[in-house]
Amino acid sequence: MFEDPATAVPPAVWPAAYPEGYAVVDVETTGLARDDRIISAAVYRLDARGEVEDHWYTVVNPERDPGPVWIHGLTSEVLEGAPLFDEIAEEFSARLAGRVLVAHNAVFDWSMIAREYARAEREAPVRQRLCTIALSKELGLPLANHKLETLAAHFGVVQRRAHHALDDARVLAEAFRPSLHSAARDGVRLPLLECRPLTEWSASPTIGRQSSGGPGPSSWRPSRKRPACPYPNPGRYEEGKPLKQGMRVAFSGDTSIDRELLEDRAVEAGLHVATSLSRLTSLLVTNDPDSGTSKTVKARQFGTPVIDEAAFGQLLRDVEPAGAVPEPRAGARNR
Questions:
Q1: Within 13 Å and on the Cβ side, how many CA atoms surround 107?
Q2: Would you give the distance in Å from CA 42 to the centre of its chain?
Q3: What is the pLDDT of residue 2?
Q4: Exposed, middle or buried: residue 29 (CB in 10 Å: 0-12, 13-18, 19+)?
Q5: Among 188, 196, 253, 255, which Cα is nearest to 225's?
Q6: Neighbouring C-beta atoms of residue 22, cutoff 10 Å
Q7: Nearest CA-CA partner of 147 in 123, 306, 249, 157
Q8: Is the four-CA dihedral 104, 113, 287, 69 of positive or negative sign?
Q9: What is the dihedral of CA 292, 298, 301, 302, to 10 degrees?
Q10: pLDDT at 12
């Protein structure tokens, strides 16, 4: 049995720095790529202490094939008469405005939402997001994995329709409330991240239309542009040696640290963050090298070194300056 968090955190000791309201969000999509579309969305609005104020749900016509129907259950026939995203954007905005967006793997939900708003030539009224995966790690919850169903089971929340946006949002809202109270009781700083709006930086007539070619993953970028890496590419990373400024680093798959933050750290260390993988890529960072993504497949083809996020984090602590000559290792013999 879990202690009732409502009695565990008196109002007088609630952290003043905590947000004043939350929008717990779940979206179902046609796929996971950057040119995929939202086909349903749900929002549970919560007050400052995680109490439900109201909820909202809609299906959305993606103007293309609905993707994995066997997962989300939304067929082309169901979606044919649904509103376009542009037609629900105003109502969606009203549900999000002035609140922290909460989602499970929030970087994905936020990215999909931000891209839909960009297509509609609008901007989502979201300034911060909170990932419940990151929060569960901050709280040290004893979870076997970070699936939503596992988090729900930990708090005794019953899931009725997995991969239905409204039920997933309900489950997450019910699991978020005790997590929020635990954080408040223990004085845990919430892992809030900035939400940067996305923009369409390369015009393409296929955006938003059903197309097998469509805009590729490189069609979308955060509106903030990073400066070009000032250092030349020194070549591939070699196991056992430090990273060197100018190395081209690509990322693939989920990361425990927010992807944007991880990329920012790499840039600050003097590395070149690459959005695609080529023969010039120095290193691929992925926690799932056998995932079969285009980047992992190319890495195998090109012989690109692959390391996981934890190892990359260690290497970021001591990146060798560009042009520096490595000191001989202890015990090394001249040849």
A1: 15
A2: 18
A3: 46
A4: buried
A5: 196
A6: 26
A7: 157
A8: positive
A9: -150
A10: 61
Number of alpha carbons in the 13 Å side-chain half-sphere of residue 201: 12
Nearest one of 34, 173, 31 to 100, comparing CA atoms: 173
Beta bridge partners, 220, equal 200
- pLDDT tens digits along 109-126: 998 999 899 899 899 999
Q: Which of 142, 128, 110 is nearest to 21 (CA)?
A: 128
CA geometry: angle at 91 spanning 54 and 168, to 5°? 50
Tally of residues, the chain = 335
For the chain, where are the alpha helices, taking DSSP H only? 5-8, 69-72, 76-80, 85-96, 106-119, 132-139, 148-154, 165-186, 259-268, 294-302, 309-316
Q: How far is CA 186 from CA 180, 193, 270, in A?
A: 10, 20, 37
Long-range contacts of 218-224 (CB under 8 A, 24+ apart): 218/275, 218/276, 219/34, 219/35, 220/34, 220/35, 220/115, 220/118, 221/275, 222/196, 222/197, 222/198, 222/260, 223/196, 223/197, 223/198, 223/199, 224/196
Alpha helices of 120-164 — where are they, by DSSP H?
Answer: 132-139, 148-154
The model's pTM is 0.64
Are 97 and 125 in contact by the 8 Å Cβ rule? The answer is: yes
Cα maximum dimension of the chain: 74
Q: What is the model's pLDDT at position 265?
A: 81
Tokens of 138: 């901050």
